[in-house]
Specification:
The protein is α/β, with parallel strands linked by helices and about 350 residues long. The chain has 14 helices and 13 strands. It has helices at about 10-25, 45-50, 65-85, 95-110, 130-140, 150-155, 170-185, 200-205, 205-220, 230-240, 255-265, 275-280, 315-320, 335-345, and strands spanning about 1-5, 30-35, 60, 90-95, 115, 140-145, 165, 195, 225, 250, 270, 285-290, 305. The protein has a 7-stranded parallel β-sheet, with helices on both faces. Helix 1 (about 10-25) crosses helix 14 (about 335-345) and helix 7 crosses helix 11 (about 255-265). The mean pLDDT is about 95. Bound molecules: uridine-diphosphate-N-acetylglucosamine. The site of uridine-diphosphate-N-acetylglucosamine has 19 residues, from helix 1, helix 5 and helix 10. Uridine-diphosphate-N-acetylglucosamine binds near residues 9, 230 and 234.
Amino acid sequence: MKVISVVGARPQFVKLAPIARACKDAGIDHVIVHTGQHYDAAMSDVFFEDLTIPAPDVHLGVGSGTHGAQTGAMLAQLEPVFEAHRPDWVLVYGDTNSTLAAAVAAVKLHLPLAHLEAGLRSFNRRMPEEHNRVLTDHAADLLLAPTEVARSHLAAEGLSDRTVVVGDVMVDVCYTVRDGLVARDAVSAESDYFVATIHRADNTDDPERLRAIVAALADAPAPVRLLAHPRLRARAEHHGIDLGAGAIEVHAPLGYPDMVAAVLSSRGVITDSGGLQKEAYLLDRPCTTLRTETEWVETLHGGWNVLVDDPAKLGRELRRDVPTEPRIEPYGDGTAAVSAVKELMVRAS
Ligand code: UD1
């Protein structure tokens, strides 16, 4: 059986790691296509190296652009790649422009399409990721959902027949990496700092909002290690906002094991990333999310994750007590990639 995985952005490389391993173990001919949506070494290469993912078989080198230009360039370039390989499955991940481009390219060629991390919804139609995931789910033949909540969203849209809950592949990779760090004694003692990432257009592109977020981080009750995404740096520079103010220490983005180690040793996480909210939850650290909603609603249980829309209210949340309620375990047991690959094999026509 031949599977083509299409990835392009940082969170997709993380999800690809356990899938690539499960494909190898199952003897699947697995072709990896990198669209080039993320191209900085710290946003791309380091994930392939640290997570021992095979180098991409095809690299499209599409790079940055407006949503239409970027998605369109990927769509045009994926078509001949898919035609040349004629895989049994095209597998797409998450909700980026790379996901949508590959989904459209696959269905236009009548190739079976599977969507990993299907059924997530923010119900916020302003988010590009929301369009990407809704359109991809409706195009796909097989919806590999991470949770029961995701299954219920797909059911509400009439997609039950194509849905199977396999668990969340991010549990697979997060716990494998955490256990490796602990075994190598590579986690520092807990220390009093926050890990922070901000990259969503809703937070970075309006200068007044970005200024308010930076002011709130600068005022935090402990040092804030701000792992600055290139979009954040570019927007801050453009608007003349000093990212290094007050409590903030600006750092380059981290690779995956370094990020897990940084979160494990921290007092908590401040973010607008979907993946990092869940990593904080899996690693037992409180998270404060600078958004009005989250796709990962399970993390809100017991106050482990708290949503803050108004940056002026961030300071109070960062001073809240550590949650005492035990976490629930809705994301599976770390075998999601193996389950996903089994589904692909069983359903290959
Ligand atoms: C994308 C995804 C988002 C995901 C995020 C993870 C979409 C619509 N969004 O957002 O869901 O959470 O990746 O990081 O697909 N840039 C660089 N170097 C890079 C990559 C980007 O400098 O390697 C800069 C460019 O100025 C670019 C900007 O960052 O224009 C935004 O990059 P883009 O891939 O368009 O979106 P992200 O914000 O990274």
